[in-house]
Amino acid sequence: MKIVMLDAKTLGDDLDLSLFKKLGDFTAYPMTEDYQVKYRIQNADVIITNKIKLNRENLHDTKNLRLICVTATGYDNVDLNYCWRHEIGVCNVKGYSTDSVAQVTVSMALSLVTHLREYDNYVKKDYQYLHSGLQNHLEPVFHEISGMTWGVVGLGNIGKKVLSIANALGAEGIAYTRTRNPIYNCVPSVNELCRRADIISIHVPLTDKTYKMIGSEQIALMKKTAVVINTARGAVVDERALTDAVIEKRIGGIGIDVYTEEPIHPMSPYNSILDLDNVIFTPHMAWGAYESRVRCMKEIYKNIQAFQLGQKRNRVDK
Predict the structure, then answer these.
(1) Is residue 315 part of a domain?
(2) Is residue 317 in a domain?
(3) Which pLDDT score, from 0 to 100, does residue 108 have?
(4) Overall domain count for the chain
(5) pLDDT reported for residue 181
(6) pLDDT at residue 318, as a whole number
(7) Are residues 84 and 113 in the same domain?
(8) How high is the pLDDT of residue 110?
């Protein structure tokens, strides 16, 4: 069995990928350009990919392909309809990054609400603290999360984890999900969540229904102090509307780890606010704690192993 990994570098340089050699003839490419994809996969039985887009244009010349393994929970980079028509299985990995994404989400929220960037700059920039003559400095004013309302959009594993942390911090946790969950304090609409929440964190996959689900209408309902965190997919928010809201001080701040185009496009509206204190931008790393990535590789191994045994594991194809 020939196994090809197309973009190993996106998984970090510190992982031991030798486990896949136990399953067959394994080749790992650090990165693969669009024009190289069809040549590198044409004889593969199994493809392992993280970000590479796989569709009719590059899959139609494959001779032996029977399985695509996506090293992520989201699989919007794979044309499932094409795979279904050509009997190509598609697997993802669920739950591996829950703790990692929740940790980064909460870290962003804590930093923005507490204004850590501003306080850090006060000490480091131009020796302001040194020359102040005061033992402490309390501007900008910050507030305790205890007593705030934390709204979670999406109640998958990550959303549930973030809610549990929010509750542990003393916040009132509310959630919006298409399928109401009686265990959680769910609100009937995204609009209602945006109206009530002090902190809004987004944890939904990118689909036709979630595309730009946080847009101008929802932002207009938010509190002027609201903090918005997106560690899901870039296009679940309207990036221009969110940027304008920050510039016009209609919301308190944003924390963004994901982008409509990655890496961030030179024309992205976010580029106009990179230097503001009330924004945090990270390079799609929330999922990638070392432990998370190790779990991911073990799950991919088990997915391929199950396929070899004629079993279906973590299959997302129809």
Answers:
(1) no
(2) no
(3) 98
(4) 2
(5) 84
(6) 65
(7) no
(8) 98
Closest C-alpha among 14, 11, 68 to residue 303 = 68
Q: Which amino acid is at 72?
A: A
- Summarised one tens digit per residue, pLDDT across range 150-184 is 999 999 999 999 999 999 999 999 999 988 888 99
Predicted local distance difference test score (pLDDT) of residue 6: 98
d(CA 140, CA 112): 11
Torsion of the alpha carbons at 163, 169, 173 and 178, rounded to the nearest 10: -10
d(CA 199, CA 173): 10
- CATH classification of the domain holding 41: 3.40.50.720
Question: Are 151 and 90 found together in one domain?
Answer: no
Q: CA–CA separation, 20 vs 25, rounded Å?
A: 8
Residues 267 and 142 in one domain: yes
pTM over 0.85: yes
Residue 88 sits in the same domain as residue 11: yes
Domain coverage including residue 50: 2-96+290-308
- Tens digit of pLDDT for each residue in 97-131? 999 999 999 999 999 999 999 999 999 999 999 99
Give the residues of the chain that fall short of pLDDT 70. Answer: 318
pLDDT of residue 180: 80
With contact defined as beta carbons under 8 Å apart, do 30 and 4 qualify? no
Same domain? 226 vs 297: no
Rounded CA separation 241/124 (Å): 32
For 198, residues 6+ apart whose C-beta sits below 8 A from its C-beta are 113, 148, 149, 150, 171, 223, 225, 226, 227
